[in-house]
Design goal:
Strand 12, helix 13 and strand 13 form a beta-alpha-beta unit. Helix 3 packs across helix 4 and helix 9 runs parallel beside helix 14. The protein is an alpha/beta fold. It is globular, with a radius of gyration of 20 Å. A seven-stranded parallel sheet has the order 3-2-1-4-5-6-7, with helices on both faces. Strands 10-9-8-11-12-13 form a six-stranded parallel sheet, with helices on both faces. The protein is 48% helix and 15% strand. It folds into two domains: 187 residues, Glycogen Phosphorylase B (Rossmann fold, 3-Layer(aba) Sandwich); 154 residues, Rossmann fold (3-Layer(aba) Sandwich). The structure holds uridine-diphosphate-N-acetylglucosamine and uridine-5'-diphosphate. The site of uridine-5'-diphosphate (UDP) has 16 residues, from helix 1, helix 11 and helix 12.
Length: 367
Amino acid sequence: MKRILVIFGTRPEAIKMCPLVLELKSREEFETIVCVSGQHREMLDQVLDVFGIVPDHDLSIMKPRQTLNDLTTNIMTRLKKVLELENPDLVLVHGDTTTTFAASLTCFYENIPVGHVEAGLRTFDIHSPFPEEFNRRAVSLVADLHFAPTATARENLLREGVDPARVFVTGNTAIDALRTTISPDFEHDVLDWVGDSKMILITAHRRENQGEPMDHMFQALAQILQERPELKAVYPIHLNPDIRATADRILGHLDNLLLIPPLDVLEFHNIMARAYVVMTDSGGIQEEAPALGIPVLVMRNTTERPEGIESGTLKLVGTQIEEITTALYQLLDDQAEYDRMSQARNPYGDGTASRQIAQILSETMNR
Ligand code: UD1
Ligand code: UDP
């Protein structure tokens, strides 16, 4: 029986790897071992609880205000011991976090094959997002199997010289997750508070946005919410204490904004499905929103997800106050523009990515 070790550490990796873990565990041909780095704690555990997954190993590395050095060195030291104990035939990593990078490098040093889920995303700017663009490129150098969500991602890999026989277009497992979470009967206190108002859903966390860009993002939101008291905004704040402090300072006084702790993924997906517009610097939300037909203003200067821009659901609005307010007013005041952006189009597959990846693993590993 082939032994596959799946490692992830943050909320978005967990949301997109749990459907694959469940698929692998349903197949008797694999022994599936789950290792979490614990790069996130509460936000990771929320996802594990929703999907009912109990990790076999937990590297428990999270600490307040962790640096990229802390993360990389602690993951590499602790994961090496798990790999020696478990001796997997393949390690599966996801996306572009420091857990992904450190785990891939550890496997490279230990000569263990790596499968990269959500491979081939690129902004072509090594500094943006930071450090994710570096992480994903570095993982592509060491991966043996590349599971690209779209044809565009596959093309990016081929241009870098990756063997075409090692690249598989599967869709994104984010859509698999979304298929299991959305429920038409969903009820929640937050939705009661919103009532019939138009709801703006906000998230923000990117390292390169912390400081002045995030101040500007929040000042833009504060300006709009003051000028339009009939709007309601909901902001589940990332647990990074610096972000909480910035949000409290700039947004804390607004009556039509709800600042709340992170929602679990069931709650977040269903509340997002009822939003009028999402304003975010998140990566994963750029994949989910097109499938739900919710317009997204992406408060970043680059995106590695051009598919949503092309399909019209996403607009890249940067981090300057005026660009953000102009884009939001247009969506609020121009119905034709709103209708154009809010058509559901899903560039990320049909929700079978996990099944396809498991099948490819079955064929390639049992050859
Ligand atoms: C990380 C990833 C980023 C991903 C994001 C998803 C890296 C370098 N960054 O960024 O790619 O988009 O996760 O959210 O891999 N914290 C808690 N509890 C939690 C989670 C975080 O208290 O459950 C606090 C801790 O103080 C921690 C800080 O948040 O030190 C930052 O967490 P970290 O994982 O370093 O960075 P993120 O911004 O979350
Ligand atoms: N999400 C969640 N609860 C929240 C905010 C976001 O479950 O309060 C989910 C969201 O649906 C998406 C993922 O978390 O699947 C995105 O995570 P994040 O923005 O932290 O990271 P990124 O995708 O930018 O790496």
